[in-house]
Amino acid sequence: MPFELPNLDFAALRTLRLVHALGSFSRAAETLGLAQSTVSYTLARLREAFDDPLFVRQGQGIVPTTRCSEIVAQAGELLDRFEELAAPRDFEPAVASLEIGISCNYYERVTILPQIVRVLRCEAPGIRLKVISSTVQGKGQLTRSQSDILLGAVQIQEAGYFRRSLFKEDYVCIMDPQNPLAQVPLDLESFVRAPQVIVNYGDGYRARFLVAMETAGYRPNTAMEVPSPASMDRILLGTDLIATVPRRIAQTFRGEVASVACPVSAEIPIDMFWTARTHSSAPHVWLRSLIATVSGREAESLQDARSSETEDTHAFPDQSF
Amino acid sequence: MPFELPNLDFAALRTLRLVHALGSFSRAAETLGLAQSTVSYTLARLREAFDDPLFVRQGQGIVPTTRCSEIVAQAGELLDRFEELAAPRDFEPAVASLEIGISCNYYERVTILPQIVRVLRCEAPGIRLKVISSTVQGKGQLTRSQSDILLGAVQIQEAGYFRRSLFKEDYVCIMDPQNPLAQVPLDLESFVRAPQVIVNYGDGYRARFLVAMETAGYRPNTAMEVPSPASMDRILLGTDLIATVPRRIAQTFRGEVASVACPVSAEIPIDMFWTARTHSSAPHVWLRSLIATVSGREAESLQDARSSETEDTHAFPDQSF
DNA sequence: GTTAACCTATCGAATTTTTCGATTCATATT
DNA sequence: AATATGAATCGAAAAATTCGATAGGTTAAC
């Protein structure tokens, strides 16, 4: 009996990964819906199995040992492979019961999700969507399994992610219907001069039309910044302000505000990303296909986020290598 | 947030692998020293997790489903990787590959690092040292994991740091060999009067002999300040200036400048600090031991940076609680 | 066609592990 | 000092795993 084979369950590895990601036992417990003492006990088992303190106290919080970071990296791969292996191979939308995590921002919540939800309630009422704000962390949320699908105008260069292009969006300018600018096509000069409400998405992101403007040497007349285009109509009505928002956002204000083409042309490519972990899971394949379908015709082209390639057998397959 | 998160432990995967190999629940149970019903129960869990019968009865025995064989192949890899991951990390310098961060200043880079590097290239060529300037932030760099080891004449009062005393250094005065002061032992009065090049280490630090002088009521005749003792010889040669530097720094100028004992006695304790984060990591233990060894005999005394401390049972142990 | 041999599945009880709430302990902050 | 934060620990409760015994099902032998 020289060696005792270490034993752990995958849930323990998930806990380890989460503690590492959050830097806190208590927050991990909260996220998992468990008591803090439970996480503490799980960590004790992990410490035993790996014969390492894993986390040591430092200052306010905890800091992972060097070995811990190695382990988390490896364990992450093990978990992904296991979850891929255990992913359901077949499912019936009508009876399947599971939760799928989607990470996206306001734009996708407004333009894509409502249609998805409608279909889901009819055809797959057992699929529960857990939508979280991606802000600028969408990629990390995917890799940490905090979400299964990432939607948005995101660019991921690295290998290890699958991508499907959904559609391209462009900008329109919206304003009070009384605004003189709403009466005629908007020219560039008027656009640049007009007092604008700029959406800054809570910092860390600059809308593409702003980048395009700047590249062309213009600077908008920023009268106000807000973090989200939500209820922009309420802001604009009765003012001389204009706002430049994606076309589909503008459509949600239909009737309330006037919209005209934006003289600065900029495209927003909206993509869907996922990882190998859910790549072969039947419900995920189904949902991704649904998302692509409701996103419209443009969704026919598709690719891997990485370079390579395969083959497609479904109506709206995720990927062709 | 994936599906009904499947959970299994690695022991279950081992059982699966064994059953697959032996083609029998009972023999697997026997091999594992378990009851047959236990294996049956484990298989029930596996069947649930993978949503597949895995084994179906045929004739005398059982036969694996195709999915089962896939799973066994994958699970075998998962098990191998897990066991590799959980295997006690015995550190072999010759093959280890990792980076270790050291925070120190010019003095330690000149006196300690060259010897370390020499040993490392022979015995542990896979260890990459990342040396950063500690200036006066060494402690913060440690706690922020910007470095793993801090070397220098540092005093850390707080708890949470490990310390090992390396050696004590003293000062000598160096000057042009032609300097009259170089011909006889230097007396205090001449020392105080002599025009000095003062090393200010880029502000924020005052050399200990300066503190000692001031305490004794003397003030040096400062002719010049420089941030580092590097190439001090080039500055001194052909002048009447003197400089007071740690003995081992002076030795790097050997032959170029004359050096005499400094009449102000001040000791510089050179210590090594680290944190719990790397305390139990085999490569770090090994390197710390190496640093202590090449730092010489004086390294035998050792303590914790915190209050408690004990004696030492190993040749050059970091610490024993 | 019955029986014997050989498996796996299942049941109830015993055991072990996991979880929880409360408390304690350690550290940092006021 | 006092307070706040967060991990460790304790005892009790809940859940899971394990075991022995037995049931159910298939094959081979008579």
UniProtKB/TrEMBL annotation, chains A, B:
Pfam families: HTH_1 (PF00126), LysR_substrate (PF03466). One of its GO terms (molecular function) is DNA binding. The keyword Transport does not apply. Residues 306-315 have a biased composition (Basic and acidic residues). Residues 8-65 form the HTH lysR-type domain. Keywords: DNA-binding, Transcription, Transcription regulation. This is DNA-binding transcriptional regulator, LysR family.
